[in-house]
Design a protein that fits this description.
Structural class: alpha+beta
Number of domains: 2
Helix content: 40-55%
CATH architecture of the largest domain: 2-Layer Sandwich
Low-confidence stretches: 1-18
Number of helices: 16
Radius of gyration: 24 Å
């Protein structure tokens, strides 16, 4: 996957760009993992760095029970396709990022962060998607114009799959090559990768909510097991997976409960007293329940997105000390199930 698509999928708009990613972790999970250099800078300066990187990757596999099925080392980022034996992707990747950064910094007499923020990850449904993703990952140097033939780029697992070259011990090729029957699985894999450009768009049609690559049934299962009834307000990916409630229908029903004219609030300008309190509670309930950004909520209520943040903080505090805030909140949540 090109970095741009992965980057946009893992972040939301405006004020949510710094939100932390949602990690879905379980034993046996497949992931497509990517990380890029801080401020777009190189994470490999020479082949020695690349060798150290792969050695560190092998250590991570041994320490955390991870199996790698494909990789490519670009100039300022990398891609992995891996499977975790336990629910430990975050622990494994944290160790990996810190360890390689320390080794890189020591070698080049530098200090500070090497990678930009948190690594990106996509949960992958099954080994069938693993095969498709391996093709996409291996074609990165070709799409970037770094080589005209993939065999000429040695810092990926493609030469190992397609031509039987030697590679790092942590790379496991049996899973992917088992999908290519016949006397020459490497030749069959080579042909698939070389003709894969036309299939890439179709693959990403199954990329869902910035979280998972798979069928709708797989995403529904993830939603059922890991998202809960209410998405976490600081996890935009989780909010996108759970889905939006109908804000108009919610406001109509909640306004009746609170005896508040929500339809007219945008035209009324600044609110005071009880009307302001009711507006703030309605906004907070929408903010807490669903996948609307602060900007979208601001548009609904006729205020700025920064005012939404202030109101949310204000309501949280007052519900702890003022019974009428808490009572109105409980009334809405007990009588409106959406």
């Amino acid at each position: 996957m090109c970095y741009g698509l992965f980057h946009r999928a893992s972040e939301s708009r405006g004020e949510e760009e710094m939100a932390r990613p949602w990690r879905i972790q379980y034993a046996g999970a497949y992931y497509h993992v990517l990380s890029r250099g801080n401020a777009g800078r190189d994470v490999f300066r020479d082949d020695v760095d690349r060798k150290v990187f792969l050695e560190t990757l092998g250590e991570m596999c041994d320490r955390f029970g991870v199996e790698v099925y494909a990789f490519v080392l670009m100039t300022n980022h990398y891609h992995f396709l891996l499977q975790t034996g336990a629910a430990n992707l975050s622990r494994a990747m944290q160790w990996f990022g810190v360890t390689y950064t320390r080794r890189f910094n020591n070698r080049h007499f530098r200090m500070g962060h090497l990678f930009q923020g948190r690594f990106k990850s996509i949960l992958v449904e099954s080994d069938a998607y693993v095969v498709e993703l391996s093709c996409y990952i291996h074609r990165n140097p070709l799409r970037a114009g770094m080589v005209k033939r993939l065999i000429d780029y040695k810092w990926s697992s493609y030469p190992i799959y397609a031509y039987g070259r030697s590679g790092p011990e942590c790379l496991k090729t049996d899973l992917i090559l088992s999908h290519f029957s016949g006397r020459d699985p490497q030749g069959a894999y080579r042909e698939k990768v070389q003709s894969y450009a036309a299939e890439e768009k179709r693959l990403w049609e199954d990329f869902r909510h910035g979280v998972a690559l798979g069928t709708g049934r797989f995403v529904d299962l993830i939603k059922e097991r890991y998202s809960g009834d209410r998405p976490h307000p600081e996890l935009p990916q989780q909010r996108g997976l759970v889905g939006r409630i109908n804000a108009e229908a919610f406001l109509e029903r909640a306004s009746v409960l609170l005896d508040f004219d929500a339809a007219a609030m945008k035209e009324r300008g600044r609110l005071y007293g009880k009307d302001k309190r009711k507006r703030d509670i309605l906004l907070f309930c929408l903010w807490e329940r669903c996948a609307y950004t602060n900007s979208e909520l601001g548009d609904m209520f006729g205020i700025t997105y920064s005012a939404v943040s202030h109101i949310v903080k204000h309501v949280k505090g007052r519900m702890k000390t003022e019974s009428h805030f808490e009572n109105a909140y409980r009334q809405i949540n007990s009588q409106i199930k959406m």
